[in-house]
Amino acid sequence: MNTAIRNTALALALLLPLSASAEGFRASVSAFNLNPKSDNGALADGALDVGVNSETNFTLAGEYAFTDHWSVEVQYGFGFDHEVSLNGAKSLEITHKPLTVAGKYTFGGETLRPYLGLGFNRTTFGDETEFGPIAGTNTTLDDASGLAALAGVEFDLGEQFALRGEVRWIDMDTDVAVNGAGVGTANVDPILVGVSAVVKF
């Protein structure tokens, strides 16, 4: 089983008993556009400038509120596919799956509630396919770990349903190897902008 999926299942398994009373637990499905920062670093001692394109995909999250203001959320991305360029030439296609655990503080409000959050992200990379200057090689990207920060606002549609708009930032750096030899670190550090449909139990 994929490590990220296993970790997500474990985290949700820890949250679900807390929701046995139903109240305080919520689930959400989101669509996020993930935009890596413009300067993604350089490989091979600076000889190859790295560029990573943006991508949109879905995420799934479970959240448990301990109080009216404090909650913890586990979010898993189903897989963001990216094209990676080296010195402007398409060189690699990759898939990455981010798993984020974050504590959230929600401000007061009857219908419209802003919130802030801070947590930890673990991203797995895979499905590497090489093109152009590195065609025929075996290129791998290490898993990445780092902080995650988020800010958003939730709008109630009733007692059970809500909509969210959210912005996230993830500290995401991955070590790159070609044919087993390390060639440097790619700095992805994306901004994610998304909307979510929320079900409250």
> What sort of overall outline do the alpha carbons produce when their principal axes are compared?
elongated
* Domain module count: 1
| CATH level-two architecture | Beta Barrel
**Can you summarize the main beta sheet?**
8 strands, antiparallel, barrel
- Poorly predicted runs of 5 or more residues: none
Mean pLDDT: 88
Radius of gyration: 18 Å
Listing every helix as H and every strand as E from the N terminus to the C terminus, the arrangement reads HEEEEEEEEEEEEEE
Sheet-strand content, in percent, reads: over 45%
Strand order of the largest sheet: 1-4-5-7-8-10-11-14
Supply the CATH class: Mainly Beta
**Helix content bin:** under 10%
Q: How many DSSP H or I helices?
A: 1
Search tags:
single chain, 201 residues, mainly beta, Porin, 8-stranded antiparallel beta barrel, 3-stranded antiparallel beta sheet, 1 helix, 14 strands, 8% helix, elongated
Describe the structure.
- The protein is mainly beta and 201 residues long.
- The chain has one helix at 3-18, and strands spanning 25-35, 42-43, 48-52, 55-65, 70-77, 80-86, 89-106, 112-130, 139-141, 144-156, 161-170, 173-178, 181-187, 191-200.
- It has a single domain (3-200), classed as Porin, CATH 2.40.160.
- The strands form two sheets. It has an eight-stranded antiparallel beta barrel with strand order 1-4-5-7-8-10-11-14.
- The longest helix has 16 residues, at 3-18.
Set down the secondary structure blueprint.
Blueprint lengths: L2 H16 L6 E11 L6 E2 L4 E5 L2 E11 L4 E8 L2 E7 L2 E18 L5 E19 L8 E3 L2 E13 L4 E10 L2 E6 L2 E7 L3 E10 L1
Antiparallel strand pairs: 1-4, 1-14, 2-3, 3-6, 4-5, 5-7, 6-7, 7-8, 8-10, 9-12, 10-11, 11-14, 12-13
